[in-house]
C-alpha cells in the first residue's frame, strides 16, 4: 500500500518526456483558436449594382448639388453631366425628378449665365419636359415659379430665355398651365409693357401657345379663319356641366375637387387679353416691312381669340361685353381697311361688326 500511495503522489510532479521538435503546452494558458467553415451563398457571387456615374465619376445627386456652385464653369459642366446621364439612362429622370426640377429651375433666372450655358440649360429642359404630365404635376408649381420670376427680371436676356422656356412648358403641359391664373396675369403684364422681347417671331410663338394652353380647343392645325360668326344679339342657355378632376385633388384637402376653368372664361380677363393682344398685333403688322411674313400667324392668333370670345358668348350675358370687345379690336379693324390687308378684314368680319 505504501508503494502505491507514493507512486500516485509522484504522478503530479512527474516530468513529461518530450520528443525532439515538440513544444510543451502551458497549463495556465487557454487555447482561443477557433475552427470556422466557410458558407458560400449564390447571392454573394453576384456583382452589387453601383450607381450610374458620368465620365468624371459623379452621380446624379452630385451633379444636382453642383448646379448651385458659384462658378459658372462648374454649373455648365453639371448641366452637361445631367443631360448625359438622363439621355443615356431614361429611368433616372423619373426616379430623381424631385432633385432635378428644383436644382435646374433655379438657373432659369440666373443672370450670370452666358449664351452657352443657357443653350445647355434649354437642351436639358427639353429632355425634362418629356416627362408625362401626370408625373410632372406635383413638380410643376416650383418650375413655374422660377419661370415667372425670370419673366419679371430686369435684364432682357433673362426675360427672353424665360419666355423660350415658357413656350416649351406651355407646349408640353397645356393642361397644367390652364389651372394657373398667375401665369395668365404675368404673361399679359409682360406683353403689355415695354419690357417684352423685341423678337417678333418669338412673341407670336409665345401668344400661339399661350392661347392654346388657355383654350379648351387647343391649337388649330390650319391658318383658316373662323367659320362661325359671333352674334352679340343672341343668348343661349347652354351650360357646361362637365367637371375635370386633377390627380392632385383629394377630398381630405378640401370640401370637393376643384373645377378646371380657364381664365378666358372670366369676362375681365378675356377683355384684358383682347386689350393687350389686339394693339400689339396691329403694331407688329404695321411695323413690318413685308406684312405677308407675319400676317398668317397674326390671323391664326385672332382666330383663336375669336373662338374664345365665341365660347364666352354662348354662356354669358353680353350687355357690357360687346362694347368692350369692339373697342379692343379697334386697332385691328382700322388696319384691316388698308387694301393690302384683305385677309385680315375677312377674318375680322366674323366678329359681326
From TrEMBL:
Belongs to the IPI1/TEX10 family. The keyword Cytoplasm does not apply. The lineage of its organism: Eukaryota, Metazoa, Ecdysozoa, Nematoda, Chromadorea. Coiled coil: none annotated. The keyword Nucleus applies. Pfam families: Ipi1_N (PF12333). Keywords: Nucleus. One of its GO terms (cellular component) is MLL1 complex. It comes from Acrobeloides nanus. It is found in: Nucleus. This is Pre-rRNA-processing protein Ipi1 N-terminal domain-containing protein. Its main location: nucleus. PANTHER family: REGULATOR OF MICROTUBULE DYNAMICS PROTEIN, TESTIS-EXPRESSED PROTEIN 10. InterPro entries: ARM-like (IPR011989), ARM-type_fold (IPR016024), Ipi1_N (IPR024679).
Amino acid at each position: 500500500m505504501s508503494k502505491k500511495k507514493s507512486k500516485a503522489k509522484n504522478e503530479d510532479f512527474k516530468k513529461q518526456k518530450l520528443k525532439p521538435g515538440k513544444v510543451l503546452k502551458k497549463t495556465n494558458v487557454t487555447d482561443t483558436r477557433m475552427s470556422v467553415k466557410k458558407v458560400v451563398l449564390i447571392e454573394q457571387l453576384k456583382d452589387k449594382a453601383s450607381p450610374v456615374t458620368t465620365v468624371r465619376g459623379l452621380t446624379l445627386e452630385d451633379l444636382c448639388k453642383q448646379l448651385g456652385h458659384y462658378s459658372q464653369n462648374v454649373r455648365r459642366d453639371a448641366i452637361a453631366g445631367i443631360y448625359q446621364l438622363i439621355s443615356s439612362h431614361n429611368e433616372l429622370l423619373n426616379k430623381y425628378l424631385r432633385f432635378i426640377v428644383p436644382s435646374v429651375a433655379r438657373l432659369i433666372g440666373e443672370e450670370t449665365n452666358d449664351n452657352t450655358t443657357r443653350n445647355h440649360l434649354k437642351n436639358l429642359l427639353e429632355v425634362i419636359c418629356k416627362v408625362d404630365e401626370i408625373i410632372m404635376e406635383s413638380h410643376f408649381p416650383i418650375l413655374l415659379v422660377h419661370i415667372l420670376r425670370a419673366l419679371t427680371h430686369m435684364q432682357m436676356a433673362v426675360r427672353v430665355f424665360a419666355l423660350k422656356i415658357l413656350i416649351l412648358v406651355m407646349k408640353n403641359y397645356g393642361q397644367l398651365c390652364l389651372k394657373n391664373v398667375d401665369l395668365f396675369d404675368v404673361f399679359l403684364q409682360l406683353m403689355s409693357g415695354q419690357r417684352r422681347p423685341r423678337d417678333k417671331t418669338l412673341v407670336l410663338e409665345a401668344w400661339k401657345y399661350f392661347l392654346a394652353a388657355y383654350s379648351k380647343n387647343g391649337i388649330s392645325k390650319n391658318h383658316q379663319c373662323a367659320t362661325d360668326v359671333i352674334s352679340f344679339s343672341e343668348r343661349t342657355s347652354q351650360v357646361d356641366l362637365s367637371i375635370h378632376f386633377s390627380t392632385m385633388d383629394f377630398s381630405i384637402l378640401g370640401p370637393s375637387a376643384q373645377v378646371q376653368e380657364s381664365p378666358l372664361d372670366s369676362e375681365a380677363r378675356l377683355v384684358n387679353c383682347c386689350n393687350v393682344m389686339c394693339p400689339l398685333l396691329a403694331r407688329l403688322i404695321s411695323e413690318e416691312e413685308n406684312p405677308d411674313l407675319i400676317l398668317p400667324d397674326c390671323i391664326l392668333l385672332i382666330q383663336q381669340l375669336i373662338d374664345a370670345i365665341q365660347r364666352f358668348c354662348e354662356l354669358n350675358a353680353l350687355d357690357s361685353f360687346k362694347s368692350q370687345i369692339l373697342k379692343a379690336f379697334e386697332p385691328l379693324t382700322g388696319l384691316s381697311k388698308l387694301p393690302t390687308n384683305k385677309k385680315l378684314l375677312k377674318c375680322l368680319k366674323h366678329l359681326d361688326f
